[in-house]
Amino acid sequence: MNIVVLDAGTLGDDLELNSLSEFGTVTSYPCTAPAELKDRIVNADIIVVNKVKIGAEALNAAKSLKLICVAATGYDNIDVAACREKGVGVCNVAGYSTDSVAQITAATVLYLACRYGIYLPFVEDGSYTRSATANKVSPPFYELRGKTWGIVGYGNIGKQVGRIAAAFGCKVIVCKRTPEEGVECVDIDTLCKESDIITLHTPLTDKTRSLIDERRISLMKKGVIIVNTARGAVTDEAALAKALVDGRIGGLGVDVYSAEPMAETSPFYPIRNMPSLCLTPHMAWAAYEARCRCLSEICENIRCYLNGEKRSRVDIIQ
Fold first, then answer.
1. Catalytic residue among 40, 201, 231, 291, which?
2. Has 231 been annotated as catalytic?
3. Is 154 within 8 Å of 162 (Cβ atoms)?
4. Using one digit for the tens of pLDDT, what is the confidence trace for 149-207?
5. Is-catalytic flag, 313?
6. Is residue 201 annotated as a catalytic residue, yes or no?
7. Over the range 19-32, which residues count as b (16 or more CB within 10 Å of their CB) and which as e?
């Protein structure tokens, strides 16, 4: 078996890929540009990929391809319909990054709610040392207890974020496709109107694309904190950036972007140093333990595929 890892750099330099050698010869690339894709997969039996886009044209070039293993839960970078047509299996990895993403989500909310973007530089640039006052409490920050935390998408990550929010003393409301007992479920417009904090954990689909747009931002409380650790395109990025600059949003945390890495043309790039903005480089999923679990699950997906089992197959229509 020829196994090709197309963007190993996204998994981190500290993660050994030796476990893949159990299944065949491994060729690993730190990253793969679109122009390099066809040549690199032409003789591949199995592809391991995180964010590289695999479309019908690339699939036509990969005559030996049997399986694509996505090193992520989301697989919108794979043309699953084309894979199905060509008999190529597609496996994702679910549940491996729940604690990692929930942790970064909570950390981002705390960073923004505590106004660290203003208080930390005040100390770092020497302003505190030069001041005549023993403390600085302006601009004010507020306790999370008693605030309403709206969660969009209530899978494993959303549920874990909900538990963290409840531990802070927040009222938790949820927007999800089907109502669920034990949690207050509301529609997206109601969530936007009632929440002091909104965190996004929904997959990118035709229905969720630009879910948070200018109209829904206009429904929100002035000063709301929004954190997106889902997919960049579930929001209208330009509308979010404008709302932050205009003071409609009190804090904005973004770990995912419609184009990655974030381009200079991104509406966030010119405002990236705003103290009320927390931008991170799509790292919420990637605690070391989470990446180890991801690789272990990929190996299990390959093993099951070779044994004729259908594990984590997203190309199979239920």
1. 231
2. yes
3. yes
4. 999 999 999 999 999 999 999 999 999 989 889 999 999 999 999 999 999 999 989 99
5. no
6. no
7. ebeebeebeeeeeb
